[in-house]
Amino acid sequence: MNERGRIRLSAFWRHSLTLASGSLVSQGLGILSVFILPRLYPDTAFGLYGVFFATVVIMGVVVNGGYEMAVMLPQEDRDAWRLVALSLLVALVTSLALEILIGLAGPWLSPRLGMPELGAWRHLLPLSLLLEGAAQPLRILLNRARRYRALSW
Known about the structure:
The chain has helices spanning about 5-40, 45-60, 75-110, 125-145, 150. By secondary structure, it is an all-alpha fold.
């Protein structure tokens, strides 16, 4: 293997190790929290969190309209930033539309879903989706810029 290939390979492994170490730390914190959080919160709180988080994850896939996936494609950084702005705008509009829908149908819908306890948390859903919609294109932008250390945390 020539010197250039060795450097490229070592950069690949260095970047992979950077991303893996951030994942390892976050997984470790998650495992540690398993021993602490059950002493602080009842089982029903974990159930509500699970339903809420699952809803955010499922809806988070479409909150940007898929535009965040295109951030890696442009040759020019200016075009990538425009896609990030478009993705953020779509996330904002989607979150506002969901907030209006929840404001109108929320009191009627919460009891019919079989979990009236979620009614108090329904207005956090659009905010959580907006934050997830903002994080997605920014993570991809960090990946585009090869800022793996920032991306790992």
